[in-house]
Amino acid sequence: MSLPSDDSLVLLHNPRCSKSRATKALLEEKGAVFAERFYLEEPLDRDELQELGTRLGKPVTGWVRRKEAAFAEAGLDDSASADAILDAMVAHPILMERPILVRGSRAAIGRPPEDVLALL
């Protein structure tokens, strides 16, 4: 599955994450029809990650999980370049902030979960 180019909804989801589960439940409560992409099992490639940043309207430094052990293990710190962070996200998808709802040319991080409602 790639990121949608149409108006369909795709939730980049980690079922072990409470915010991700809460966002999924909120979408279901609102009757939204969406696909799930378990990004830890089906990681985004570098091109998809770059496109996701465009859709979020944020540089990759704004949606990387700095507190994950993989951040330091990948040799990253606060001065890491966007390219280094993207390379690390490809190798360690856990570094991507979650959950993220994608719709057309836009995306939103579900932190808090209600932030994704703007895409409905």
Features:
4-stranded mixed sheet, 120 residues, 4 strands, 32% helix, 4 helices, globular, Glutaredoxin, alpha+beta
Describe the structure.
With 120 residues, the chain is of the alpha+beta class. The chain has a single domain (9-119), classed as Glutaredoxin (3-Layer(aba) Sandwich). The chain has four helices and four strands; from the N terminus they run βαβαααββ. It has helices at residues 18-29, 46-56, 69-73, 82-91; strands at residues 9-13, 34-38, 100-103, 106-109. A hairpin with a 2-residue loop joins strand 3 (100-103) and strand 4 (106-109). 30% of the residues are buried. The model has no long low-confidence stretch (mean pLDDT 95).
Q: Sheet bearing the most strands, described?
A: 4 strands, mixed
CATH superfamily: Glutaredoxin
User: What is the mean predicted local confidence, pLDDT?
Assistant: 95
Distance between the termini: 21 Å
Cα-atom radius of gyration: 14 Å
Which series of helices and strands comes N to C? EHEHHHEE
Question: What is the percentage of strand-forming residues?
Answer: 15-25%
Low-confidence stretches: none
Q: What is the 3D form? A: globular
Total helices: the number is 4
Q: How many individual domains?
A: 1
